[in-house]
Amino acid sequence: MYKVLATFLKRFFSDSQIYKYGFNWSPMYRRTTARLIEVSDDLHYVKIRIPINWKNRNYAGSIFGGSMLSATDPIYMIQLIQILGDDFVVWDKTASVKYKRPAKETIYGEFVFSEAEIQAIKQQLLEQDELEIAKAMTLENTKKQVFAEISKTIYIANKSYYKEKLKRRQQSKK
Length: 174
Prior knowledge:
- It is built from seven helices and six strands.
- The chain is of the alpha+beta class.
- The longest helix is centred in the C-terminal third of the chain and has 15 residues, at 159-173.
- The chain is globular.
- The protein starts with a helix and ends with a helix.
């Protein structure tokens, strides 16, 4: 559904506008309490804000850790899907979080892919059909105090290889 809607909206809006407002209006993302506040035109940079409010405040009065993790969860994957295009399959594989201190104020996170990283991913996928990459980011306040460190492992494959892999897996189950 989201992909069909995005394809239609490309007639009227830029990819970065669709990405930003699509996330911010999406019911699944709205529930995290985070908002995308900045998206670069090439989608290589995304910044989020997680304000503390009654929807994400835990028993101790700080931002619930689940809100922090869920606010960061889909960003890298969907960034890569948009940057790499339809010839690739991208999935989140693992996520881990290390909480550094209670967040009792608005916090921010930045998701960055350099052009060199994207080119390296494309080059690796020419040499091998699938790969996993690791990305790390932090959630911090405006004074750069770190509240959480988040690590993600992302699976990327050539779409044709991935479809064949799924076929082989289904056939082996029979």
